[in-house]
């Protein structure tokens, strides 16, 4: 036994050294990370939105006001030139914003973001087709965004509610709502659905994240742009309710490409 002891001691020492080396290598392999946060704001013609005041004119000449805006963004993605994109929280990336709820105007994203240089950032306005499932939100305010089952189910992408002074000089409400559209047959029956969610990208927004840094972004919705580019949107033509009007929702979603600005603020 005495003869075996030195050999056993050597084996134990080698195992300990091997373990320490492995732990050291693993610690050296830990990638440095930072975090990001988003601040949401809402402008009309370059200034902060003023609620419930008939003071705005769109490109079609409609005088209008805004009561409230509620919407979702999802699939927030940070893009790198090496192709290793970072999708925020995968299936937990849906964020709700409400002009009446200041707590929703900030999104402190808990993900650890690998430090480094990024080329751009993008998101889906609304909820993507594969994720927009009915009844996944059971509590308000998100649950109040439900889209009727017979119209396609899931949830609104946006409720932009307001009023306009119509061509008869009567102020009436409009519900500029985006969600799943309907395809109708000649008898007016629903025979299919259209997913009107769309991608918003900022290809020129290069940025870098350092270790332990919290990088802040500001995302601005420019409300007047919903009504002008590339399509002129006239409330007198489309009326106050477009949930069952795919032609109107198509115009709105195609105008949405240019509605948002994003900048790094810190």
What does the model show?
There is one protein chain. A hairpin with a 5-residue loop joins strand 13 and strand 14. Strands 3, 4, 5, 6, 10, 11, 12 and 15 form an eight-stranded antiparallel sheet that branches. The chain is 15% helix and 38% strand. The chain has helices at 4-28, 235-238, 246-255, and strands spanning 33-44, 47-48, 56-57, 63-79, 86-87, 95-98, 106-108, 113-114, 116-118, 120-125, 158-165, 171-178, 181-184, 190-194, 198-202, 207-209, 214-222, 260-264. The protein has one domain. By secondary structure, the protein is mainly beta. The longest helix has 25 residues, at 4-28.
Helix content: 10-25%
For the biggest sheet, the summary is: 8 strands, antiparallel
Distance between the termini: 67 Å
- List how many beta strands DSSP finds: 18
Give the helix tally.
3
Stretches where pLDDT is under 50 for at least 5 consecutive residues are 11-17, 21-27
Indicate the radius of gyration in whole angstroms: 26 Å
Shape: globular
Tell me, rounded to a whole number, the average pLDDT: 90
The proportion of strand residues reads: 35-45%
- Structurally, the number of domains stands at 1
The secondary structure category is mainly beta
């Amino acid at each position: 036994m005495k003869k075996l002891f030195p050999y056993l001691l050597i084996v134990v020492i080698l195992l300990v050294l091997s373990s320490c080396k492995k732990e050291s290598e693993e610690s050296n392999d830990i990638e440095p990370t930072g975090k990001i946060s988003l601040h949401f704001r809402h402008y009309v013609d370059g200034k902060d939105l003023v609620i419930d005041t008939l003071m705005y004119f769109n490109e079609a000449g409609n005088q209008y006001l805004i009561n409230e805006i509620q919407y979702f963004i999802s699939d927030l993605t940070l893009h790198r030139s090496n192709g290793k994109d970072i999708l925020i929280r995968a299936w937990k990336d849906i964020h709700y914003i409400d002009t009446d709820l200041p707590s929703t105007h900030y999104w402190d994203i808990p993900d650890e973001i690998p430090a480094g240089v990024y080329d751009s950032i993008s998101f889906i306005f609304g909820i993507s087709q594969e994720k927009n499932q009915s009844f996944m939100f059971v509590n308000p305010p998100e649950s109040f965004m439900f889209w009727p089952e017979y119209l396609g189910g899931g949830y609104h992408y946006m409720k932009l509610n307001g009023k306009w002074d119509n061509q008869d000089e009567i102020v009436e409400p409009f519900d500029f709502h985006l969600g799943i559209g309907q395809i109708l047959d000649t008898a007016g029956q629903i025979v299919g659905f259209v997913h009107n969610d769309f991608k918003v990208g900022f290809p020129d927004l290069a940025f870098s994240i350092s270790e332990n840094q919290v990088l802040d972004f500001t995302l601005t919705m420019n409300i007047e742009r919903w009504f002008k580019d590339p399509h002129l949107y006239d409330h007198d033509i489309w009326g106050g309710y477009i949930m069952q009007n795919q032609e109107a929702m198509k115009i709105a979603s195609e105008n949405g490409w240019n509605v948002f600005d994003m900048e790094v603020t810190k």
